[in-house]
Amino acid sequence: MPRATGPLADALAARNVLLDGGLSNQLAAQGCDLSGDLWTGRVLAEQPDQVEAAHTAYVRAGAEVLITASYQVGNDPVLLRRSVRVADRAARAAAHEVWVAASVGPYGAVLADGSEYRGRYGLGVDRLAAFHRPRIEALGGADVLALETVPDTDEAEALLRVLAGTGARAWLTYTVAAGRTRAGQPLDEAFALAAAAPEVIAVGVNCCDPADVLPALEAAASVTAKPLVAYPNDGSVWDAADRTWHPPSAPAPWNVAAWRATGARLVGGCCRVGPDVIAALRTPPP
């Protein structure tokens, strides 16, 4: 079945949908060099066939949504559009329905210093909107936009401002810790920003500890009836100074049943979560 035949929003209204996992760890497993500020974007620029192979690994694991390699490429329109085309090729080769979600990473990602885990860049909403506008325009060929790893409400407000009136559809996911955004704002207030936005088809969290998922989803469910999204890391902590992950002493448990009971329709993994975990999350349609 080439590509998805209907909007992702319709699928989320009817059933659980399986998201892919971490692109960086899969590219590393394929032997790719992710050094430098572009990170996965370096592989997209130099070896796009390897990015397609990584997407394909997740398709074979059962993923129904592929997130593009555009997270850290800044405002380069060539690479942004290429990221969608590469994911599209993998989706069209799949034997099941697959949607392409264009990653719109936070401003902190292009700084390559871990700022997305702090937020509060010192930029106002207007400047953040100006940064994101050309990126969102260049990624318009995807089925949906993944406004992901958002660390604070200023950036969420900027993204929603750019999205308004475009006709595009998106999900909005914050990176969180200890029941708040990474910048320290209450999660109910953060999720409320998107509650009335018709362009936003789902809200939730990504790039966080699995233990932080359920409280965040409960906060989201308290202010919106939109479907929820959850794709955490494996429990490792990113050290921006050393540019290394520090893994947990034991695998972090994933309470997926509770996530779904709270309203999570779109579940997958982020950093250090590979195809094996995605395959284990696969469930038969209801």
From TrEMBL:
Query: Which EC number applies?
Result: 2.1.1.10
Where Zn(2+) is bound, by residue?
A: 207
GO molecular function annotation: S-adenosylmethionine-homocysteine S-methyltransferase activity; zinc ion binding
The record ties this protein, via InterPro entries, to: HCY_dom, HCY_dom_sf, Hcy_S-methyltransferase
Tell me the leader sequence span.
Answer: none
Q: Which SUPFAM superfamilies match?
A: Homocysteine S-methyltransferase
Annotated keywords: Metal-binding, Methyltransferase, Transferase, Zinc
Cofactors, names only: Zn(2+)
GO BP terms in the entry: methionine biosynthetic process; methylation; S-methylmethionine cycle
Under which main EC class is this enzyme filed? transferase
The cofactor note reads: Binds 1 zinc ion per subunit.
What NCBIfam families does the record tag this protein with?
Answer: PRK09485.1
PANTHER family listed in its UniProt record: HOMOCYSTEINE S-METHYLTRANSFERASE-LIKE ISOFORM 1, ZGC:172121
Q: What is this protein called?
A: Homocysteine S-methyltransferase
Organism, scientific name: Streptomyces lavendulae subsp. lavendulae
User: What are the top taxonomic ranks of the organism?
Assistant: Bacteria, Bacillati, Actinomycetota, Actinomycetes, Kitasatosporales
